[in-house]
UniProtKB/TrEMBL annotation:
Swiss-Prot/TrEMBL keywords: Membrane, Transmembrane, Transmembrane helix
Superkingdom of the organism of origin: Bacteria
GO cellular component, one term: membrane
TM annotation in the entry: 21-43, 49-71, 83-106, 112-133, 140-163, 175-197, 204-224, 236-260
Membrane topology: Multi-pass membrane protein
Lineage: Bacteria, Bacillati, Actinomycetota, Actinomycetes, Micrococcales
Subcellular location: Membrane
A Pfam family that the UniProt record links to this protein: SBF
Residues making up the signal peptide according to the UniProt record: none
Protein name listed in UniProt: Na+-dependent transporter
Length: 335
């Protein structure tokens, strides 16, 4: 998609559609923040439900599966290059960026392991919404998220073992099995349900993003409750690490698109897909296989990436307005 076509899409989108989309993305971090507050101030009772983290992650991935269709995977065959590029970048740029962040900030071992696990996670489902807001290639975004998610049972544990093993012991085999159980099987299950009950699923689609974010909020509450005694002590350091990691992903993702001479919409999609992670999965795996403090980067990332995604989308739309104005000035009759 060329810059001109993004400007054309800016013409076609109604103000109400834009407001509704932005409202959804901006409300998401508020709900996640509420989950973190509940987890911190009611740590005792909330921590009793920590065993629910993995089942809740399964629900999130099942809702992702409900949004998928076979055509999403057909796109991998029709347009393999951008998908392959992003998946490679996803599992190269973000893990290495995590290592760089740990080195720059000299993070303690527990937090460093959590940041690296976050960097080794697949793309986040919220990236599809942000790609839409940024006027990226939404169909391609869905395909990229799907492929990186399918590869996660192999890529995430191996990369985490390699890069984070120096900080904390990593049970790569157990982690791989958990990812199969809470990611791969629920996604496949959701896809099958959509194929069998398409009309029912279509009616439920508008509710699914809200169900997903409410579930992520609960996961964040459980994660924060497990490390509530150290949240204040580690909070600023974790926040700095998350902002730097996410920013590197967005900038490098966009830069890779420029270097490979991809169209504007694909550059935006690459930035979003690489910069946004499945932070809920990272938090859940860290809580299960590392320790509660290692899960904190994933919880904070869940909050921050929606805010940064909204800011990135706003920047993209501002650029489109400028392009649209240039078109109108160029076609306007001279006095």
């Amino acid at each position: 998609m060329s810059p001109e076509s993004t400007a054309t899409r800016a013409k076609a989108e109604t103000p109400q559609e834009a407001r509704n989309s932005y409202r959804a993305v901006l409300v998401f971090p508020i709900l996640i923040l509420l989950g973190a507050i509940v987890g911190y101030f009611f740590a005792g009772p909330v921590s009793e439900g920590a065993f629910l983290v993995n089942p809740l992650l399964g629900i999130i991935m099942f809702t992702m599966g409900l949004t998928l269709q076979p055509v999403d995977f057909a796109l991998v065959v029709k347009r393999p290059l951008p998908v392959i590029l992003v998946v490679i970048a996803q599992y190269v740029i973000m893990p290495l960026a995590a290592v760089l962040v740990c080195w720059i900030l000299q993070l303690p071992g527990e937090i460093a392991a959590g940041v690296i696990l976050l960097g080794c996670a697949p793309g986040g489902t919220a990236s599809n919404v942000v790609a839409y807001l940024a006027r990226g290639d939404v169909a391609l975004s869905v395909a990229m998220t799907s492929v990186s998610t399918i590869l996660a049972p192999l890529a995430t544990p191996l990369l985490t073992l390699w890069l984070a093993g120096q900080y904390l012991p990593v049970d790569a085999a157990g982690m791989a099995m958990s990812i199969v159980q809470i990611v791969l099987l629920p996604v496949i299950g959701g896809l099958v349900v959509r194929l069998l009950l398409p009309k029912l699923v279509k009616q439920a689609l508008p509710v699914l993003p809200w169900l997903s974010v409410l579930t992520i909020s609960a996961v964040v509450a459980f994660v924060v409750s497990g490390s509530a005694d150290r949240v204040i002590e580690a909070g600023l350091l974790v926040f700095a690490a998350v902002v730097l990691h996410n920013g590197l992903g967005l900038v490098l993702g966009y830069g890779v698109g420029i270097a490979l001479k991809q169209p504007l919409s694909i550059r935006r999609t690459m930035a979003v897909e690489i910069g946004m992670q499945n932070s809920g999965l990272a938090a859940g795996l860290a809580a299960t296989y590392m320790n509660p403090l290692a899960a904190l980067p994933g919880a904070v990332f869940s909050l921050w990436q929606n805010m940064s995604g909204a800011l990135f989308a706003a920047w993209c739309r501002r650029r489109d307005r400028a392009l649209l104005q240039q078109e109108e000035d160029a076609t306007a009759p001279s006095a």
